[in-house]
Amino acid sequence: MGKVIAMVNQKGGVGKTTTSINLAASLGVLKKKVLLIDLDPQGNATTGVGINKGDIKISIYEVLAGKEVINKSIMKTKFNNLDVIPAYINLAGLDIELLDKEREAKTNGEKFDKTIQLKVALSSIKDNYDFIIIDCPPSLGILTTNALTASDSVIIPVQCEFFALEGIMQLINSIMLAQKKLNPELDIEGVLLTMLDSRTNLGFEVVENIRSFFKERVYDTIIPRMVRLSEAPSHGKPIIAYDPTCKGTLAYFNLAKEVIKRNGTKKESVR
Fold it and tell me: What distance in Å separates the CA atoms of residue 32 and residue 25, rounded to the nearest whole number?
């Protein structure tokens, strides 16, 4: 059965989408069968793996809105062992639709839980993958709640900057609330330090602060701040395809190895 991992942080610009794309692609290169779910209405993970928005017939929106089955939304990418469920801007209105459905169901004496729609949909395809990576939006709304309910664990990307810990406690509280009310099995997979500028002492001070706060939960791998990483998505490629020899490629490849090691998935892929 596939391990479902949500990439979560309510702060924007911390490397959620970059990590979702590059971790998924690196796991694929390491012969793991991977599904990347774009749960952000901006759809950046979708374009970041080379999917043209005009080619999308069924997205995660139709699945969560109950208009289509999840199998029909899966698109193959050009990269090894990597499929994607795409997103585009119509996903932004899903919160209201799900609230309306829940209200209508209550009025009719029926049951509808807006927080479990992704979990229900994933139940039919989890066995087809080794890893399912969910790129969450920079908020703690219904979309992220669906991801937390559907996931086995979360990865928290934390930028190596002065205000790195700001908002983290709110996120931890949200994860604990999800554990208590929605998903008792939810765990913190790991904390990933991103965008380290090795030219400044501040970055390394933040690394020490994060490590002392989260201890063994912090990955050994640290993602560097580099132009090539920010360029790659605009070319519709993960860094491992855009620039195979750069430091960013090595970093995400090492992260993928850590994720595999922590999950003990040394067995053959489910392919």
Answer: 9
**Cβ 23 vs Cβ 35: under 8 Å:** no
Q: What is the pLDDT of residues 162-188, one digit of tens each?
A: 777 777 888 888 899 889 999 999 999
- For the sheet with 187-196, list strands across it: 75-76, 82-85, 34-38, 131-135, 3-7, 153-159, 187-196, 218-224
- Residue 207 CA to residue 65 CA, distance in Å, equals 41
Q: What is the pTM of this model?
A: 0.93
Q: Count Cβ atoms below 10 Å from residue 242 Cβ, excluding itself.
A: 20
* 82-85/153-159 β-pairing: unpaired
- Give the tokens for residue 247: 């430091």
Distance CA 24, CA 183 (A): 24
* Closest among 87, 144, 150 to 120, alpha carbons compared: 150
- CA neighbor of 196 nearest in space, from 188, 187, 205: 205
Cβ atoms within 10 Å, residue 55: 9
Helix (H) or strand (E) segment spanning residue 5: strand 3-7
Q: 175 with 151: CB under 8 angstroms?
A: no
**Under a CB-based contact definition with an 8 Å cutoff, are residues 112 and 142 in contact?**
no
